[in-house]
Amino acid sequence: MNGPTISTNKWLLPRRQFLRGAGTAMALPVLDAMLPENAVGAQAKAASAMPRRMAYVYVPNGVYLDQWTPQGTGSRFKLPYILQPLAPFQKDIQFLSGLTHDKARANGDGPGDHARANATFLTGRQAYKTAGTDIRIGVSIDQIAAQAFGDQTRLPSLELSCDRGRKAGSCDSGYSCAYQYSISWRSESTPMPPEVNPRLVFERLFSDGASEEDQEAKARRRENEASILDFVMEDAKRLQSKLGSTDRRKLDEYLTSVRELEQRMERAEKAGPPKPKYQKPAGIPKDFQSHTRLMFDMMALAFHTDTTRVATFMIAHDGSNRSYPMVGVNEGHHTLSHHQGKQDKLAKIARINRFHATQFAYFVNRLKSLGEGGGSLLDNSMIVYGSGISDGNRHNNEDLPILIAGKGGGAVSTGVHVRHPRNTPMCNLFLSMMDRVGVRLPRFGDSTGRLRLA
Questions:
Q1: CA torsion sign, 291 to 253 to 157 to 68?
Q2: Which residues contact 263 (CB under 8 A, 6 or more apart)?
Q3: What structural domains and CATH numbers belong to the chain?
Q4: DSSP 93-149
Q5: Where do the H-state alpha helices sit in 283-425?
Q6: Number of C-beta neighbours around residue 168 at 10 A
Q7: SS3 assignment, position 210
Q8: Beta-strand relationship, 416-425 and 93-100
Q9: Which is higher by pLDDT, 268 or 427?
């Protein structure tokens, strides 16, 4: 007998439980032993006990809308070429058409569409046009969520990107680089710089907060090429002796997944020409797909362990001219986005868009594979995916390519394509999402009401 389990009603594990070692604190996924006895074995009650997560994933330069927009509405629709990688998860997603960001339009400010697309995406506000330090825009919706319930987790929010950003200087027609490389804003003048290094994100997720000890532990792990699990295994064994069989299996699966993630990071770091040991790569993969998927894994890990419930991921900034040779596109994305209706360029844009959708499908699958509360982590999440520009050639901001994955704990209907009236503010979506995490806002950005999500 391995000690008391949740079924005995004699032992309840704190939700914010950690496995600890030198300079290391590993948060745990939600176990049965963390739930009240009457929640275990009853799917509806277990699901209601689960936290709800929100994430926002940004892709640049708009899309080829003809190959993005689902054919048909309601539950009877077909996914076009770009969205086909999401077909296995069609019933887990609500596809939205007709949403608009009016404040990403020029509105008298002249050129600078890419900077405005990024800056407006989660704020719904018009960026004050400046290349100086007097930047100004509204607080983003993710940070409003972080301010509302971020104190319930170790990290109020998590900001990720695959682009090395710039915080100052002029980037797009007189707009500060802060606008173009940030979608998350803590205040009207304070962007939240995203982290681009998956190794640093990993270390942040497993830091115990004692900075000097953390640095020493990290140095020892890297010097000896040790796993973070080596530092917490003694504590893990003590915990396992108290868990029931189901939770022991969950814990084993979790520890295995962490080790597999470490191994993938190590392989990515060692890619390329060998370097002296003291110059070991910091952890940014050269392969873009590997980089993107590692960042998605970090976000899934942060949600799974309830380290945070709010995250943003800018796969690339608007205006990015990255090429995509992995799908046969050697020209820059931004250059191609000015396609002038030429079919050869549109076909390449569609391949880039499909590549992004494929990476997002990887993330959706990851969340769906993690069981939680009688359902999955995806069931308890709301993940917005899309761009602040519709067509890269026109730089227009109506009928944005937007979808929301996950059921939000049962508060979002999925498996449907909903076509909203033209110029419906995207901020209406944000208001509705906030309602579903218990934060009632009278308005946000240029909102005019709320979207019906369920």
A1: positive
A2: none
A3: 1-49+200-283 (no CATH), 52-196+298-454 (3.40.720.10)
A4: EEEEEEEE-GGGS-TTS-S-HHHHHHHHHTT-SPPP--SSS----PPPHHHHHHHHH
A5: 288-304, 333-337, 343-369
A6: 12
A7: coil
A8: parallel
A9: 427
> Which H or E element spans position 192?
none
> Are 339 and 392 a contacting pair, CB within 8 Å?
yes
Which class for 91: exposed (0-12), middle (13-18), buried (19 or more C-beta within 10 A)? exposed
The residue with tokens 């939205």 is: 96
Residue whose structure tokens are 């962490």: 258
Nearest of 229, 232, 220 to residue 262 by alpha carbon: 229
Q: Which structure tokens are listed for 212?
A: 């000097």
Q: Which residues contact 124 (CB under 8 A, 6 or more apart)?
A: 101, 103, 138, 141, 425, 426, 427, 430, 444, 445, 446, 447
Amino acid, res. 265 = M
pLDDT digits (tens, 9 = 90+) for 97-140: 999 999 999 999 999 999 999 999 999 999 999 999 999 999 99
Determine the Cα–Cα distance for residues 330 and 339; give it in Å rounded to an integer.
15
What's this model's pTM, rounded to 2 decimal places?
0.88
Nearest to 98 by CA among 429, 384, 357: 429
